[in-house]
Amino acid sequence: MAQKDFDLAAAGGAVAFLLEMYNLAAMVKTLAEHLDRAKKDSLLEVKAAAAKNRWGDIAVNTWG
Question: Which of 14, 18, 20, 44 falls 20 to 30 Å from 3 in CA-CA distance?
């Protein structure tokens, strides 16, 4: 398992973090195309839970 640390107080770190999240979302979308259709209800529950935690709701202090 890989882990990256981001300095969200620095503009470059915040941009790198958002880029990684964008890439992760694209990867998840691709993987989702290969999932078992019978698990659709379970995945919808996960999607609903994730919708409560949108990135736009997270305030990041970049002024340090």
Answer: 44
